[in-house]
Amino acid sequence: MRKLILAAASVAALVGVAVLAGPASAQAPIIIKFSHVVASNTPKGAAAEKFKELAEKYTAGKVKVEVYPNSTLYKDKEELEALQLGAVQMLAPSNSKFGPIGVREFEVFDLPYILPDLATLRKVTDGPLGARLLKKLDPKGMTGLAYWDNGFKEMTANKKLIAPADYKGVKFRIQSSKVLEAQFRSLGAIPQVMAFGEVYQALQTGVVDGQENTTSNVYSQKMHEVQKYMTMTNHGYIGYVVVVNKKFWDGLPADIREQLEKAMKEATAYGNNQSAKENDDALAEIIKTGKTEIIKLTPEQDKAMREAMDPVYKDVATRVGQPLIDEFIKETGGVTH
Ligand code: LMR
After folding, report:
1. What is the structure's pLDDT at 5?
2. How many Å apart are CA 82 and CA 152, to the nearest integer?
3. Does residue 15 carry a pLDDT above 60?
4. Shortest CA distance to 238 belongs to which of 259, 257, 217, 219?
5. Ligand 1: which atom is nearest the Cα of residue 96?
6. What is the average per-residue pLDDT within 128-138?
7. Residue 176 Cβ < 6 Å to ligand 1
8. Looking at residues 44-65, what average pLDDT do you find?
């Protein structure tokens, strides 16, 4: 795969040279390949399409955005390598996926119950802490442009998950985040890192028993067809960092970059305004199919889950950084752990 990515990167570099070469190719548009792993009818899929529409409009066609959804180009880990090598220019991986390239700080968003709602999240993403976190990506050859929402995660499995004890020994697919690993270990479950594009089949064949995700991701990947139960835990958040290859971005003509920044700002507002509705709609569709039983927790059951996962904060303090966790909690004015 690495070879393939490298080959694609050199082609991309050649194309870049051709664009700069001279008058014959002066009209060739600048191509932004935007690769992602979810379906188009999800919060990220819709925001990516909106960005394409606005970017092409504001640059009057000087930029062409090619969106590749559903892992058609690359899976989770590969897409980050491809971005660093310049084989694609833009991605929006979830906060949980930056650990493997050496940026652990975004895993703070994975801490269980750290965000009571999306309005609270904005205090972090729109504030100085959010800006500082984006800067951590610079040394990795990428520029962080925006935070995009998906929403809150629910638990799915083929057994009823109500009390923490129900999770014991159950195999869960997780994203590549050590915080998520610690979260499932705190419940006595067995976490297994797996690319998003492989989850449906792994659930279907029993390679894993369950997973955690937003309702829009569950519905658009048809996970509800192979999971009998979904427990509405809302225990964690999935959101994205829109990243662009730094060299590509810095090399753009200033006016084009400004137009793209405007398009990104508007696409972000558009996407984040409707992500909650998209998840609500997906939940309604899942219920309509009648294939998955939806389980709601009582306040006591919810409290038991919170207490069971609370040790995660201590378990990951050295990895994520206690000062960062403290600052995050201070910014959100939220839970004390
Ligand atoms: C997952 O891997 O479960 C999600 O991060 C997929 C996504 O991009 O929403």
Report:
1. 54
2. 28
3. no
4. 217
5. 5
6. 97
7. no
8. 98
Residue 38 near ligand 1, beta carbon < 6 Å: yes
Max CA separation in the chain (angstroms): 70
Question: Which atom of ligand 1 sits closest to the CA of residue 173?
Answer: 3
Ligand 1 center to residue 91 CA distance, Å?
A: 12
Ligand 1 pocket residue status of 238, Cβ below 6 Å: yes
Q: Does ligand 1 lie within 6 Å of residue 196's CB atom?
A: yes
Cβ proximity of 69 and 81 under 8 Å? no
Q: Does residue 89 line the site of ligand 1, with CB under 6 A?
A: no
pLDDT digits (tens, 9 = 90+) for 230-257: 999 999 999 999 999 999 999 999 999 9
Cβ–ligand 1 distance for 217 under 6 Å, the answer: yes
- Domains of the chain: residue spans and CATH: 2-150+238-277 (3.40.190.170), 154-236+281-331 (3.40.190.170)
Is residue 3's pLDDT more than 80?
Answer: no
CA angle 279, 208, 35 (to 5 degrees): 50
* CA pseudo-torsion sign 317, 322, 328, 333: positive
Atom number, ligand 1, closest to the C-alpha of residue 42: 9
Residue 127: Cβ-neighbour burial (10 angstroms; 0-12, 13-18, 19+): exposed
First vs last C-alpha separation in the chain? 42
Residue with tokens 């205090």: 123
- The best mutation among 73, 211, 213 to test binding of ligand 1, ranked by most ligand atoms within 8 Å of the C-beta, falls on 213
